[in-house]
Amino acid sequence: xxxxxxxxxxxxxxxxxxxxxxxxxxxxxxxxxxxxxxxxxxxxxxxxxxxxxxxxxxxxxxxxxxxxxxxxxxxxxxxxxxxxxxxxxxxxxxxxxxxxxxxxxxxxxxxxxxxxxxxxxxxxxxxxxxxxxxxxxxxxxxxxxxxxxxxxxxxxxxxxxxxxxxxxxxxxxxxxxxxxxxxxxxxxxxxxxxxxxxxxxxxxxxxxxxxxxxxxxxxxxxxxxxxxxxxxxxxxxxxxxxxxxxxxxxxxxxxxxxxxxxxxxxxxxxxxxxxxxxxxxxxxxxxxxxxxxxxxxxxxxxxxxxxxxxxxxxxxxxxxxxxxxxxxxxxxxxxxxxxxxxxxxxxxxxxxxxxxxxxxxxxxxxxxxxxxxxxxxxxxxxxxxxxxxxxxxxxxxxxxxxxxxxxxxxxxxxxxxxxxxxxxxxxxxxxxxxxxxxxxxxxxxxxxxxxxxxxxxxxxxxxxxxxxxxxxxxxxxxxxxxx
Length: 483
Known about the structure:
Shape: globular
Number of helices: 20
CATH superfamily of the domain at 14-100 and 159-357 and 392-435: Amino acid/polyamine transporter I
CATH class of the domain at 14-100 and 159-357 and 392-435: Mainly Alpha
Structural class: mainly alpha
CATH topology of the domain at 14-100 and 159-357 and 392-435: Amino acid/polyamine transporter I
CATH architecture of the domain at 14-100 and 159-357 and 392-435: Up-down Bundle
């Protein structure tokens, strides 16, 4: 299926609908990316189950493993970004390395996966609003009321242009990182808990104890969103320099931050108590120590920042999906109307409305079916999205290897061969852990959840078939795709 990579110019008239260029700098992209990873949400949601089901106090080491795998992946990914600058990064890279049929499969899987992640986050936002805002507002409003209000705000904000979105997300990101850093520093200043500031969490005997694969799986899920750096390539300044730097900075910051914060919370509880509390009181795991070290006021602030963290992640994923839709429209795969840009803000506003509708319909179906916002909407849908994204990352590593072996545009052995191979092996191993432990990731062994890998595979096959049909029926669109 491999085909030579030869960039094709957009269709006539398409230039008017190109995204604005030179509007994003390095740190604005970093804000967009780290906001998608939602550090506060990841820490509060992923760490307790990673401890109780995974490797216990070795969780900080699991975050290091996941981060190192992604850093290795990023080497080839960043090298590729210097040669292929497209808003649909995943499928553009797969197309360039493995051919258009697999590229189309990647495009559909990316749309499915990111949309599922966003739907899951809307469920999570609604759930925590009932917990945090309900008592404050003296309201018994159901979760979906908050979710729908959030959806409307995201739609309005998403129309205002990516530069404004980046500034807003930067503020929210600093707030959520700040509260976790304040807690962690307070723990360090006080010398930790019963065992002091122990580094037992990074000792191999603890990192690889219990079920380390499950812990790495949860840790990796907390990184999702970092790969969006390349999606903004056409809108940033000097993309061949900015995108690689943003990728390395984002992954490194998330890795160091997650490892430090999880280490601090383990120190706060001590080796003997951390796993027990994570198992018995997962929802209060972080708030217990926040109350102890920072007081009730700061703990209340943390609970509100959890909502802003989820909102920031939703907005970031909204921007990501919109750029995929706009890119596919520019290439003739989706209707041309989705190319249109807002006359004032220059944002892909029709694609934005379509993205909102694509999330609204499944949410309403969940509401109609009486689904639980946390145990079903969030847990199930995020599991499906995570599987798809991990598989995309793994296939992208293979595509990077194939691209450089074919084009010889980067002859550095580490960047073009060794790193992509190691990244692919690591990512396929994590994907295998996801499939084998779907019950742990989703919180259920329901047969529907067990079918998720097959759903991702079916969407990929559908993409291949669509590409083959286009190659025969619409060669003009086929040859423009992904180029």
